[in-house]
């Protein structure tokens, strides 16, 4: 089950909660009743090694016109 981070726009209260993908997003702050927004963090994957960039192609594999 994914964990989502929320922060209140009014009182800045922030918290994490586990929700299923089918659950609706939370909209009301449990502290003050203000409007919540989802907080997006850094992406949890990293691509390392060669082959992930256009400039990483092998020197002999370029087409000649």
Describe the structure in your own words.
The protein has no helices and three strands. With 65 residues, it is mainly beta. It has a domain at 1-44: Rubrerythrin, domain 2, CATH 2.20.28. It has a three-stranded antiparallel β-sheet with strand order 2-1-3, with no helix packed on it. It is elongated, with a radius of gyration of 21 Å. The N and C termini lie far apart (51 Å). The mean pLDDT is 82.
Could you list some keywords that capture this structure?
65 residues, mainly beta, Rubrerythrin, domain 2, 23% strand
What does the secondary structure layout of this molecule look like, with pairings?
Blueprint: E1 3-8, E2 14-18, E3 36-39
Antiparallel strand pairs: 1-2, 1-3
Describe the global form. elongated
The name of the CATH architecture of one domain is Single Sheet
Estimate what percentage of residues fall within beta strands.
15-25%
* Lateral arrangement of strands in the main beta sheet: 2-1-3
Largest sheet: 3 strands, antiparallel
Low-confidence stretches: none
CATH topology of one domain: Rubrerythrin, domain 2
Number of strands: 3
């Amino acid at each position: 089950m994914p964990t989502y981070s929320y922060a209140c726009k009014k009182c800045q209260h922030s918290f994490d909660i586990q929700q299923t993908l089918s659950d609706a997003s939370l909209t009301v702050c449990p502290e003050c009743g203000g409007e919540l927004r989802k907080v997006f963090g850094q992406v949890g994957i990293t691509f390392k090694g060669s082959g992930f960039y256009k400039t990483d192609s092998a020197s002999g594999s370029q087409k000649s016109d």
